[in-house]
Amino acid sequence: MLIVMQLPTSRTEPDGSAVVRVLSCNVRSLKDDTEALARVIRASAPDLVLLQEAPRFFRWRKKLARLARTTGLVTLTGGATAAGTAVLCSLRATVERTEDVLLPLTPGLHRRGFATAVVRFGGARLGVLGCHLSLDKDERHEQSGLLLDRLAGMGVDHAIAGGDINEGPEGPAFARLAGALQDGWATAPWGAEHTWSAADPHRRIDALFATRGIEVLGCGVPVDLPGVTETDLRTATDHLPVLGAFRIPAA
């Protein structure tokens, strides 16, 4: 399914509300074509970028900073301290606070975490949470509950969460999130639907979610980005990114 229309640009409205563009992308530890990845991120013109599998080993801060610099963004939070989830942001964001959260470790499975922040755009105040849920079905479902608990405890009226859910909308963890939050694609589909795999997209396992009260203006896999080829999207990493535009009410 492909829906082609113009996604709203970032802006602050006279009433203090803000249109914010958010990009989520699993970057596979920057093992693929980083120049193509940078082109995709720049062309998406995001205010916030939620990364999964961000660098988390040797010189991870330097690698994350290089990606931010080449895309005209800055590192907001995350990396190794959030088990490979990270958030980049534009200079449009005013940062109130950040917190990296490590989730309980299940023996034999990868450690997971949340990269979180509270930011302001104009008069709008927004909680942000980036995630990469487990490959194990039971642990993934438990983590979806922890995600909702974390959002509820951030002390904000409005929040956006997103990342690699590692299952589609038919799965219990995805359904739990979509039941409590607005699923961006299901609410206002834009672009293309499927995110996995980049070489043969046939499943939607990456998503952006918004709390009630946020207006979802469009959300999906970006297509026809200026200066970005289909090859760029296929070679930047092994997932396709998800881009959304959201109107955040004034605080």
TrEMBL record:
GO terms for molecular function: endonuclease activity. Gene3D superfamilies: Endonuclease/exonuclease/phosphatase. Residues 23-239 form the Endonuclease/exonuclease/phosphatase domain. Keywords: Endonuclease, Hydrolase, Nuclease. InterPro entries: Endo/exonu/phosph_ase_sf, Endo/exonuclease/phosphatase. The keyword Hydrolase applies. This is Endonuclease.
